[in-house]
Amino acid sequence: MSKGLFITFEGIDGCGKTTQIKLLKEYFEKQNKTVLLTREPGAKGLGEKLREILLNYNGEVSSNCESFLFLADRAQHIDTIIKPAIERGEIVLCDRHTDSTIAYQGYGRGVDIEEITMLNNIATGNTKPDITFIFDIDIDTSMSRVGKEKDRMESAGIEFFKRVREGYLCIAKSEPDRVKLINGNDSIEHIHSQILDIITSK
Ligand code: ADP
Ligand code: TYD
Fold first, then answer.
1. CATH of the domain at 122
2. In this structure, how many other beta carbons lie within 10 angstroms of the beta carbon of residue 134?
3. How many domains does the chain fold into?
4. What is the mean pLDDT for each group of 10 consecutive residues in the chain (202 residues)?
5. 63-77 and 46-56 are packed helices; what angle lies between their axes, rounded to 10 degrees?
6. Which of the two ends of the chain, N or C, has the fewest CB atoms closer than 10 A to its terminal CB?
7. Of all protein residues, whose CA lies closest to atom 22 belonging to ligand 2?
């Protein structure tokens, strides 16, 4: 069975994931590769319903409940969309995955990181990204890029986002083989070329 490539993109809101994923998709498609562009939370189907709750529900949501909803979305996503695409030999570009739960619910909300890691492994059946890019930007840049219209997660406040950013920096330090830390303040073109250098040297 041919095996594709699984690449995830991470960082605080507005760090430039969507922009870079689009450029990388175009790069692979020029080489006639089949690319699946997907995201968490809420790729399609049931995931879209979970996304609606996670980003727009107005009432109280406990941190554990929030973690389980992201993990439920991930389990469905990996089983019905990501794994089949990897098995078909496609290149999967995924906007957010396991590291988001560690950074946002773990470092941000204070849920136990070891427990989230264990639950991530259950949700993914231990399928791991081949490469993860984390784009690091400061909180002011994040806030100005996100703009005034904020969803439930984006409204969590500056202190929350500082913890999430620190969380991402810890993840990058602890898994240097898989996780590549990129300065998200660099120009769009420069970031794209750094990504290509990393992918082609893998
Ligand atoms: P994300 O998907 O991580 O939320 P986006 O790619 O949607 O981020 O980018 C958020 C905003 O920041 C967009 O307006 C985008 O054009 C802009 N942007 C993205 N990357 C850069 C960059 N390297 N420098 C300046 N602005 C950027
Ligand atoms: P989204 O609109 O996709 O934001 P972005 O364009 O920045 O990726 O919203 C997803 C939000 O959900 C974002 O604020 C990060 C958050 N999130 C978590 O808190 N935990 C998770 O496990 C995932 C996948 C996302």
1. 3.40.50.300
2. 23
3. 1
4. 86 97 98 97 93 94 97 97 97 98 98 98 97 97 90 91 98 98 98 97 88
5. 160
6. N
7. 101
